[in-house]
Specification:
By secondary structure, the chain is of the alpha+beta class. The chain is built from 18 helices and 35 strands. The strands form ten sheets. Strands 2-5-6-7-8-16-12-11-10-14 form a ten-stranded antiparallel beta sheet. A six-stranded mixed beta sheet has the order 17-30-31-35-32-33.
């Protein structure tokens, strides 16, 4: 079987915060109230990294502590006690690792060319560390060699400052360094080169075949001091000839030796590009002229201050305000910039393209995750970024041989997860009035919707069965139940885009087909259930299991039968009818949140943060707590959302209950803590939950501000008693995006007991284009 999910690839195998401490479990220092703590999410299964980046920047510079185990997908884990070096690219919160390009190792003593194992910091070039500190745009750590390392960034350059002790020292550039996994086969790095020009500019290129197979990285690097000697190393660490000024091969390294490394710090600046070395040079020349580390650091801090000021909160606890700021920070790390300064980028067709003036291309779209909350959040607080991402996804859709993307990374469609959820982001943007050329994407979207001959990635398998049977059969294609449901949601999104381009017949067909999710819900037992090509259901059925033959493959995507049952987002009233009405649906939700938290022995590590069988640490039903509002029990939504905000997030390294997934887990918190959430992003509405803070002020674009007040809020008062919008009573338990972005005041009155607010049928959220029956 070809694996499809991200974790299967590995698992089946004031910005001047407080100084950090030695990496250890739960020892990350808390920052001042309302300031982000960059170590939140770096422990547990959060998979974030603490190094500096600009908002949505290309360079994500930072320390690498490990490159082999699943919990080091970002190259870093807070429990590790030694650092290998500092690389220029990282992924934030993902369930598969890649990147870690251009590792810089500053140290003293004999030259070591291998890092050595994590469990033996005395072997190889890795070093113990102390006094670790991180804040937006800046990172600092003391290495056991006596080197004080500092890092900062611009959009496309990483800047280092190393203060060596007196005596000799050296800086190793390990261009073979990357994420490794025991399941990797064949050549992982090839077409590599390093070259040193007479003026001291080091350039390099390589191709990497890890997750984004065939991606390329190019860099240009300068040092502030001239080394006394330079030594290149080729494959198998073979030294190049004396006096060599370059080397080619696959796994390359170069060492710069300084007879007296002490005194003035050694600074390094590195530009990167996915296009070519010239692009990296241009980044270096334009973004890092001279040697101005402190100036760059201050500019990065100012940029982050401006970015994070889009949401300000008061009330709650110090820890909750830190969680909020940290979640907002992680929501602005990805997607990452992918255009050179001249507008060139590598498209999903592996060709070099140029964006129109004022536009940008991006990478690291974790769309299976982020369509749910991250992209909706950006449409509220950073509509200009949402616009750039929308237009970029239109270009990527038109250029990709697979049509609308699911998990594009560095110019490569990885085909990871299920569906083609770029269409959700595009349909949501259209529904929210974001201007873009949606017609340019429609031909490839239509092919993905109807053309059986369009090339399939792992994420889109089984479409023929889906068209003919109305579902993906479990005996033909793995993760069949989840595929059926996710394909149905993408049909719903594509219908919106069809209407946008005047394809009314296509829109009607897609809306009808979007109800295919029902074909894997067995109403006789009230569960999502694997179904075979002959129409028969899998028996005997057990909702905690991963499917009918999990030793071969699973029938659900990072979920089990319980969790898949509530995956539907766009036809909630159809689901309620399928379950026999409001009371039955509420009882089913109650059972979901109160069932024993039992999982099968072969459950993926993603199913975490259990409340009953609900798994907050993974995405498939992160909207589930809000479903009560559709069935006339909004107070149950309010209680559960407040519980999840309080129990699933902490101001500690293990403070994210599952992988942060490029900001999705963080964005869920930001929106839910504000008091509303997009159950179905394409519908452009938000369902009310339970605001966590007494007051929040939110920038919503065009100089407008949204103020959210929670009168009478308290830890024991999660229940909404009434709502006022701009001073007038508001009876609906939802609000439209078009209302929110006009700005104004949304006032909740909270209480310690449930109220009848939002219960009336007329006040429930619309779904599938209609209200409750």
């Amino acid at each position: 079987m070809t694996t499809t999910t991200r974790r299967q690839v590995l698992a089946t195998t004031g910005l001047a915060g407080l100084a950090g401490v030695l990496p250890a479990p739960a020892l990350g220092a808390r920052t001042a109230a309302g300031k982000p703590d960059l170590f939140v999410g770096t422990g547990g299964h959060g998979h974030t990294f603490p190094g500096p980046s600009m908002p949505f920047g290309m360079v994500q510079l930072g320390p690498d502590t490990d490159n082999k185990r699943w919990d080091a997908c970002s190259g870093y884990h807070r429990t590790d006690t030694s650092i290998m070096g500092f690389s220029h690219t990282h992924l934030s919160g993902t369930g598969i690792g890649d990147m870690l390009d251009v590792l810089v190792v500053p140290t003293t003593g004999p030259l070591q060319l291998q890092p050595g194992p994590l469990d033996n910091p005395d072997a190889g070039y890795r070093q113990r560390c102390s006094e670790e500190h991180a804040e937006p745009g800046y990172y600092r750590v003391k290495l056991e060699s006596g080197v004080l390392a500092e890092l900062t960034v611009t959009e496309r350059t990483g800047q280092h400052r190393y203060r060596f002790p007196a005596g000799p020292g050296h800086i190793l550039i390990d261009f073979a360094h990357m994420i490794l996994d025991v399941w990797d086969k064949g050549t992982l790095v090839d077409e590599a080169s390093l070259a040193l020009s007479p003026d001291g500019l080091l350039t390099g290129s390589r191709r990497v075949h890890r997750w984004a197979k065939g991606r390329r990285i190019h860099f240009a690097m300068r040092m502030s001091r001239t080394p006394d000697r330079v030594q290149f190393f080729g494959d198998n660490d073979a030294p190049a000839a004396a006096g060599a000024t370059g080397v080619t091969g696959n796994k390359l390294k170069v060492a710069f030796f300084f007879d007296e490394a002490g005194g003035a710090p050694i600074e390094i600046k590195t530009g990167i590009s996915a296009v070519d070395v010239e692009g990296a040079k241009a980044a270096l020349a334009a973004e890092a002229p001279g040697w101005r580390f402190d100036t760059t650091r201050k500019a990065a801090a100012r940029a982050w201050t401006k970015e994070l000021d889009c949401v300000k909160v008061s009330g709650g606890t110090v820890a909750q305000r830190t969680i909020m700021a940290s979640a907002l920070y992680h929501s602005f790390v990805s997607p990452t910039l992918f255009t050179d300064r001249d507008g060139r980028y590598v498209g999903l067709d592996r060709q070099v393209h140029s964006v129109p003036a004022g536009e940008k291309a991006y990478s690291a779209y974790s769309l299976w995750d982020t369509y749910r909350a991250l992209h909706p959040l950006l449409t509220i607080v950073r509509p200009e970024v949402a616009t750039l991402l929308t237009r970029d996804l239109i270009r990527q859709t038109a250029q990709s041989p697979y049509g609308p993307p699911i998990w594009p990374l560095q110019g490569v469609e990885t085909g990871t997860m299920t569906g083609w959820h770029a269409v959700s982001v595009l349909a949501e943007a259209k529904a929210k009035g974001i201007e873009a050329d949606y017609a340019a994407a429609w031909p490839m979207i239509r092919r993905r919707a109807f053309d059986r001959t369009l090339k399939d990635a792992d994420s889109t398998l089984g479409r023929g069965f889906y068209y003919d049977l109305g579902y993906v059969p479990a005996d033909k294609i793995w993760e069949s139940v989840s595929r059926t449901q996710e394909y149905a949601y993408d049909d719903w999104a594509m219908a919106v885009l069809a209407d946008a381009v005047g394809a009314g017949d296509d829109a009607a067909a897609l809306r009808q087909r979007s109800r295919n999710y029902r074909n894997v819900i067995d109403p006789s037992i009230g569960f999502a259930r694997p179904r075979f090509a002959d129409g028969k259901w899998w028996t005997p059925y057990d909702p905690i299991q991963l499917g009918h033959n999990p030793e071969k493959y699973r029938d659900y995507t990072e979920a089990n039968g319980w969790q898949a049952t509530f995956l539907n987002q766009h036809d909630i009233y159809g689901m309620i009818e399928l379950f026999g009405g409001d009371d039955n649906y509420v009882r089913k939700l109650d059972a979901f949140f109160t069932a024993p938290s039992t999982l099968p022995r072969n459950a993926p590590p993603d199913i975490t943060g259990l409340v009953g069988q609900y798994a907050h640490g993974n995405e498939p039903d992160q909207h589930a707590a809000y479903l009560y509002a559709y069935a006339g029990a909004p107070w149950k939504t309010q209680a559960m959302v407040r519980r999840l905000c309080v129990e699933m997030y902490k101001a500690d390294p293990d403070g994210v209950i599952g992988n942060d997934d490029c900001g999705q887990m963080s964005a869920w918190f930001v929106l839910s803590a504000l008091g509303f959430y997009p159950v179905d992003p394409v519908s452009a509405i938000y369902v009310f939950g339970s605001p966590l803070f007494d007051m929040a002020e939110v920038e919503v674009g065009k100089g407008r501000r949204l103020r959210v007040r929670a009168i009478g809020n308290a830890p024991n008062a999660p229940y909404v008693q009434s709502v006022r919008w701009n001073g007038r009573p508001w009876t609906k338990n939802w609000i439209a995006h078009a209302d929110l972005i006009r700005g104004g005041e949304l006032e909740f009155t909270m209480g310690t007991a449930p109220s009848r607010f939002g219960m009336a049928v007329a006040d429930r959220p619309p779904s599938f284009g209609r209200g409750a029956a």
